[in-house]
Amino acid sequence: GAGVSQSPRYKVAKRGQDVALRCDPISGHVSLFWYQQALGQGPEFLTYFQNEAQLDKSGLPSDRFFAERPEGSVSTLKIQRTQQEDSAVYLCASSLRGLYGNEQFFGPGTRLTVL
Amino acid sequence: DAKTTQPNSMESNEEEPVHLPCNHSTISGTDYIHWYRQLPSQGPEYVIHGLTSNVNNRMASLAIAEDRKSSTLILHRATLRDAAVYYCILRDTTAGGTSYGKLTFGQGTILTVHP
Q1: Is B102 close to A56, i.e. CB distance below 8 A?
Q2: What average pLDDT does range B23-48 have in this prediction?
Q3: CA distance B6 to chain A (A)
C-alpha cells in the first residue's frame, strides 16, 4: 500500500526565497506531524495536525514557518524568506489516530538546502 | 517527555544478536517505551513499543527492566539491512495530555553491522 509521500525530495533555495514542502499522508490518517532534522541530529518536532486543525505549533522555530492542512489530508509546510539555518531534512509523519495511540509512519523527507 | 540515554554507537557482526540499551531513569508510570530506527537517507520507521512486559514482534524484541528504568532492544540476528540509527523514545499516554503523541528524539545509537 501507499505510504507517506513527500515532494519535492530535494529543494535548493537561495537565501530569502520562499519554499513550500508537500506531504501526502496515508489515506484516513487523522494525525499529521512535521519534524525538522538537522545533519547528524535526531528529528525535532515542528507542528501537529488532527484532521484540519493545527493543535500544536510549539516547535515552529520562527514566524517564517507556516503549515496548513486545509482539507484534513495533504499538508504543506511553507518557509518564508529562507535562511541558511533552515537547511535540514523536513520529515512528515502520519498516524491513524491522535494522541499517543499509534505508531507514526514517516515519509522519506525533503532535503532543503539554502545557499 | 522524559529523557532517554543511549550509547552513541555500537557494532555487530552479521547474523549475531545485537542488544541496544536505553536508560530512562525518570520514566513515569504513564510512559510507553518506543523504538524507532532510521536507515540512511530514509525517514524513521517504527520498530516496537512496550509498557511493562517484554514484547516480541517480527522485527525485534523489547526487554524492559522490572523497575522500568532501562530497556534493551534485541535484534536476534543482525543483517546488513539493520545498519541504522536506533532511537529509544518515551511517549506520555496520559489521557488529555498535550503531547499529542509527538515523538521526542534524542541522538540515538548508530548501529554498524559488519559482514
Answers
A1: yes
A2: 93
A3: 13
